[in-house]
Every structure is written in structure tokens, then in C-alpha cells.
Write a structure and sequence with these properties.
Elements: H1 2-15, H2 25-45, H3 52-68, E1 82-84, E2 89-91, H4 93-111, H5 119-137, H6 142-159, H7 163-184, H8 194-197, H9 203-207, H10 214-226, H11 252-285, H12 289-313, H13 331-349
Helix pairs in contact: 1-2, 1-11, 2-13, 3-4, 3-5, 4-5, 4-6, 4-12, 5-6, 6-7, 6-12, 10-11, 11-12, 11-13, 12-13
Amino acid sequence: MVILMGISLMVIHSMTLEDMDQASLVKNQIEWFLVGFLVFLFFAGFDYNRLRDFSWMLYILMFFLLLGLYFTNPIQSVHRWYRLPLIGMNVQPSEYAKLIVVLCLGWFLDRKKDSIKSFSTSLQVLLITGIPFFLILKQPDLGTALVLYPITLVMCYLGEVQRWIIKSFVFFGVVGLTAVALIFTGTMSHEKARPFFTSFMKEYQYERLNPNTYHQKASQIAISIGGVTGSGWQKSSFSSKKWLPAAHTDSVFAAFGEEFGMAGLVFLVFLFYILIYLCFQTARCAKDSFGRLLAAGIAVYLAMHVIVNIGMMCGFLPIAGVPLLLISYGGNSVVTTMAALGVLQSIYTRRFMF
């Protein structure tokens, strides 16, 4: 975690070096990392079993926060944040919703394990995920909504729900990924496919599937400029000059690639591999079904952020606004990630307690 945070500060500093208006972003990120560590320590010392008692209350709170966004003034033309003027920050409920859905699904599947095969239980599982999924999708926030999809699939599989739910999730997931792959590889023309997709999608949503957007091309150019060893820290000629959109937030992987090259990217991916591997190891050694479901859900949640963000920057997936964990600038993502890792630490340290 500390190494990833150090990389984050290096990239943010480099990408905002020539912009006086954003010079304080490194200081802000350090403050969020400190808050994140406090959150991590709190949840690491908190018995994860007690989270069962709060899961449904957190879910209700999440529901009203997501719903309430549509009764506030939009920020940047979307309904994603609450602006808190007194402390000068924006709160993004959808970031916390992902962790709350994992918690609530773990609690529900563990509670219903004796009737897990019933139709009513399966329907309730779909509702638990479906309600926040569509509320987040309508903001619109496609990337965050789609992260809930594999989380639900894996947790349903481990919870041994009815097979038709798992098969349905896999079927629609494969169909969706195949359609995206056909468009992004040029097998299916983006323009020729427009009439079909816009029959059930809005125009701006379909445009995200365009593999030739400036953001898509710019991220690939930044990575290619880096070559094998990169241009060097604070020596980028593309990303730091504002040619790469969102260089210190969603596009931080491409910005890092320009300065540190393929060697740096391999090292970064290796760090994420270690982190996610340890998350799944925690799920394997959890002492009870609730801990196992909770750890697996968090591990998938973290893994999907890494896979989706890197896929977007490399041109394999549409740009969907998914941050790179502990690297992208932003307080909501940092706090949620550190809370998730704190819960995992709690599960691991209590694996021998009965």
C-alpha cells in the first residue's frame, strides 16, 4: 500500500508541476492517504462479524444517498456528487456503494444459506444489487455500475445460489464483452452498429464504445512514447503538457507509462498482483462463510478496478471513469479502498479466533 501511494504522489506531482492551480493536489492526496490509514486501522481493529449488524442500515443509507443525488444540482452535468461547502469537498456515494453492496450481499447470503436455493432468495439477491446498479447507471456512471456485475457473480457462485442466476450473469457478461471486443477490434463497425445499440442505449452512452475517441488514442500514445524505460520522472513531453485528459486521475496509468516505460508498468502491475493475490488468500483462509464471502467480494471489487482501468488505458475497454486504486487522485476512492483493505485485515487476523 505504501509503495502504491508513493507512486501516486510521484505521478500527481509530475502531472501538475506546471499548473499552479493544481499545485496543491499532492498535499490534498497526502491528507487523504492519512485519513485512509486511519480508516484502515479502524476497520482492521474492528471485528468484521459485527458488520452484520450494520449492513442493512448502511444499505438503506446508501439507497437514500444515491436517490437524493437526483434532487440536487448536477456537478459537471452529472448526478454523482454531493458538494459539502463547509469542508470544501465532494462526496461520491457510488464509491461507497460498491463496498456496502459487498457487505450486504455477504450478510444476506450467509443469513439465507439454509434457503439459498429458493426462488425468493434469488430474487432478493438480484434486488440487493439491481437497485444500486440502476441508480448508479442513471447518474450516469457506467464504470462504477459495471464493477457491481462481477462482484455479484462471484459472491453468488460462492454462496451457492441457484445455478440459473449464475448462468444468466455469465451469459449476459459474455455477450456484452463480445460486443465490445468486436467494436474495439474493428470487426464490427462502430457506425454501422449504431442503429441497433441506440435502440436501447442513449446516444452519449453508445459514444463511449467508440474506439477512436481522443481519450482512447491519447492514452495509447502516452504509453507508446514511454517505450521500454520511459522518458523519466517529470520529463514527459505529452501527458504533463495536458495532451492526455485526466492525467492525474483516470489516466494515471498511461501517464506513469510515459515516464517510466514498460519496465515501470510491469512493476506496477506486479504490485497490484501481489495485493490482489493476498486479498484472495484472505478469502481462502477465512474461518466462516460470512468472512469468506466478504473477503472474496472485496477481492473482486479491487481486482476489477485494476483490470478495467488498465484495459481502458490500453484500448481494450471503453473509457468509463474507473480510478486506479491508490494511484488516481481522489479522496472518495482512497477512503473506500483503505476501508476495504482494513476489513480484509480484520478477517485475516481473526482467522484463528472462534
